[in-house]
Design goal:
Strand content: 15-25%
CATH architecture of the largest domain: 2-Layer Sandwich
Number of domains: 2
CATH superfamily of the largest domain: GTP cyclohydrolase I, C-terminal domain/NADPH-dependent 7-cyano-7-deazaguanine reductase, N-terminal domain
Number of helices: 6
Largest sheet: 5 strands, mixed
CATH topology of the largest domain: GTP Cyclohydrolase I, domain 2
CATH class of the largest domain: Alpha Beta
Amino acid sequence: MGVDRRRVAELTRELLLAVGEDPDRPGLRRTPERVADMVAELFAGVGEDPAAPLAQTFSVAQGPAPETVPTGAVVVRDIRFRSICEHHLLPSAGRAHIAYLPGERVVGLSALPRVVDVLASRPQVQERLGEQIADVVASTLDARGVVVVLDAVHQCVTMRGGRQPDSSTVTVAARGELAEPAARAEVIALIGAARPAGEQG
């Protein structure tokens, strides 16, 4: 179905009136349409299947000799994401780090950021977002273990209420073998390991 841009524009105009503004003045005349376009982008994940990016897998056991199977974790870190807090409809932004213990088959590395994007592009809370990412990766890839670490700054914390501009929130979700404390700690240490010089970013 997607976002009803016309209705969002109408409601934005009503909001401007409700706060005492004139939506017909030059600076605001096109604001309802701009907001509608923005909302369509920010909530593009509503109704989308987050498992779809993981549909295509490939074997790492079959290929140039000698054949092998994965023994350790696959880690994709520093996946940038943004979301909208469902409590105040204010944005959050941060980085996601995903580690999983694959079976015989793995997924293309670019697929994991797409999973994050689909799930983040809907009204969310960070705690749920991490758990949903872990569930999708664990179930769709039949992974032996999954860890998802999210580190984000929330404007509902930095701009209102306590107004803590330096505050960030870190959440951890773990599944399977990587839910075991020692294994989880090892992967989290790997996620936090310093990058070689020249590869910061």
